[in-house]
Amino acid sequence: MVNFRLDGKVALVTGGSYGIGFAMAKALAKAGAKIAINGRNKDNIDQGLADFKKEGIEAYGYICDVTDEVAVQEMVAQIEKEVGVIDILVNNAGIIKRIPMHEMKVEEFKQVIDIDLVGPFIASKAVIPGMIKKGHGKIINICSMMSELGRETVSAYAAAKGGLKMLTKNICSEYGGHNIQCNGIGPGYIATPQTAPLREKQADGSPHPFDSFIISKTPAGRWGTPEDLEGPALFLASDASNFVNGHILYVDGGILAYIGKQP
Ligand code: NAP
Ligand code: GCO
After folding, report:
1. Given this model, what pLDDT does residue 77 score?
2. What is the pTM of this model?
3. Which of 194, 248, 250 to mutate to test the pocket of ligand 2 (most atoms within 8 A of CB)?
4. Has residue 204 been placed in a domain?
């Protein structure tokens, strides 16, 4: 019988206080995992923990910026003490800046790379020793359609998410022999605070042009929801995916397969 349960497992979901991270953490908790989340903002963490409680989930929250290696290592040590050695890491924390590349400051480019690519490196480096000792581990990197495609104004984000796809394949290559599976999830366009500006109604009440564009490019004919990521996250976090490694699972309603509706 394929095992999707996570009883006795400890999962850290970075940026898990809301959005996609919260939904994936909820799914892992409902399958039996003990959940730790982190974020930069205490209010977001407190709200996230309260929202987990409403779902009957006792989660653990840590204020920690994924770009700060010392803080991440201290957080992992604290989780090991308070919750247990981490079996599952979901590198979800991420930002985007939508600025035409020729107008983007180097610092802005670097900030996106730091959070979206260096952060997953730092967190993965912090949990791998414990996973090697335990003889198993799951690392799930939250990539993007921008791991495969570009578009105007998201150069830093696409570079980071493209790099995250290859970091995923490299962790698979380097640690697969320790029974550590590292895979990615590439969400399509998901309705969260990160994409809210792309869905804002126009002054006349009409849909945002990008909103209509994405719906026309998506065979499913809708934006994704964070809940659409729950099953894929559970699959990649569970023993059901023990022979899946270095794979990016796109959860995009079919956008990447579709040339788009004839106008
Ligand atoms: P979101 O709503 O903006 O949430 C981002 C989360 O990351 C928040 O919990 C935020 O909490 C945390 N975070 C940001 N920077 C951090 C840092 N330096 N250290 C620790 N935590 C940090 O984003 P989302 O839409 O849920 O996206 C989550 C992930 O999915 C991101 O990696 C994003 O790139 C990716 N993704 C999103 C979509 C989409 O359409 N929404 C599609 C594909 C991929 P604090 O602000 O409190 O730190
Ligand atoms: C954008 C969006 C996308 C989504 C996602 C798509 O501005 O194009 O924010 O980047 O967040 O990454 O997979």
Report:
1. 98
2. 0.98
3. 194
4. no
